[in-house]
Design brief:
Number of domains: 1
Helix content: under 10%
Distance between the termini: 57 Å
Strand content: over 45%
Shape: globular
Order of helices and strands: EEEEEEEE
Structural class: mainly beta
Number of helices: 0
């Protein structure tokens, strides 16, 4: 269990959670407690932009990530027997894959305000 944590994976680094583990990870959501100026509240896992490694997370029921997972060039691979609400937050990943008996739900929590581009006709 990790409360108010940030996992940072630099270029070429990988992270594997193996075994039939149960984990609960939560990012810092209180802006006054952010460890770095300008850091996005809710960020729990950040993979460097050029890092295309796969983040493998094996879990069982009760495993949960609360916050933002940011893997812009990487793959998030879930396997094992994870079920129920696996994440509360946002998954920003290049590729997402599941393997095994995963039956999960992701509840969106808006840590990052996302706006859709608008098209305007100006005459």
């Amino acid at each position: 269990t990790g409360q108010d944590v940030l996992f940072f994976f630099g270029p070429g680094s990988a992270f594997n959670v193996v075994g039939n583990t149960r984990y609960v990870l939560s990012g810092v959501t209180d802006p006054t407690k952010l460890p770095y100026p300008g850091m996005q509240p809710g960020l729990v896992i950040f993979q460097a932009r050029g890092n295309a490694q796969t983040l493998r997370m094996v879990g069982k029921s009760g495993a949960q990530v609360n916050g933002i997972l940011y893997l812009p060039a990487g793959t998030l691979e879930l396997s094992g027997n994870a079920s129920g609400t696996w994440a509360r937050g946002q998954l920003i990943v290049y590729r997402f894959a599941t393997n095994g008996n995963t039956n999960i739900r992701v509840e969106r929590v808006e840590h990052v305000m996302i706006t859709r581009p608008a098209v305007w006709l100006i005459e």
